[in-house]
Design a protein that fits this description.
It contains 6 helices and no strands. By secondary structure, the chain is mainly α. It has one domain: Globin-like (Orthogonal Bundle), CATH 1.10.490. Helix 1 crosses helix 6, helix 2 packs across helix 3 and helix 5 runs antiparallel to helix 6. The chain is globular and about 40 Å long. The chain starts with 7 loop residues before the first helix and ends in a 7-residue tail after the last helix. The mean pLDDT is 89.
Length: 141
């Protein structure tokens, strides 16, 4: 799946919904990790160091991706690098889906009622693309 699979409407929905978190990115990241560790307590072993710093870093990366959706050639190398690091950390194939589900659930919770089914579908489409790139399924160097 390529970035071209995202329609202009998908990109708009993703960017508008993420913009609604402005000023609350760190909180959204913390909510995400809390929920992720509730779903799978064993996954916390993959995370070393301060989880607040990790959640801030994760949300900065999401922000970079969201803001760069119209320029995938710019964000693909960063996503590939993130995928390599996740591989080194020991992230398993099945954990990508859990991570995506958790991320989208938390975004929906934090954004509220404006995070409708079309927005959710757009985020899932984006996440599938990102997960494929991270797993090295596309854009091989």
């Amino acid at each position: 799946m390529d970035f071209e699979k995202l329609s202009k409407e998908d990109i708009k929905l993703i960017q508008l919904s993420f913009k609604q978190l402005s000023g609350r990115y760190d909180k959204a990241g913390e909510v995400f990790y809390k929920r992720l560790f509730e779903i799978d307590p064993n996954i916390s072993k993959l995370f070393k160091g301060n989880i607040k710093e990790q959640s801030s870093a994760m949300m900065r990366m999401v922000k970079t991706v969201v803001e760069g959706l119209n320029y995938p050639e710019v964000i693909i190398p960063a996503v590939q690098d993130l995928g390599r690091r996740h591989h080194e950390y020991g992230v398993a194939e099945n954990q990508y889906k859990m991570f995506g589900d958790c991320l989208i659930e938390c975004l929906a919770q934090e954004v509220g009622k404006e995070f409708n089914e079309k927005t959710k579908a757009a985020w899932y489409k984006l996440y599938e693309i990102l997960a494929d790139v991270m797993r090295g399924k596309h854009y091989e160097e």
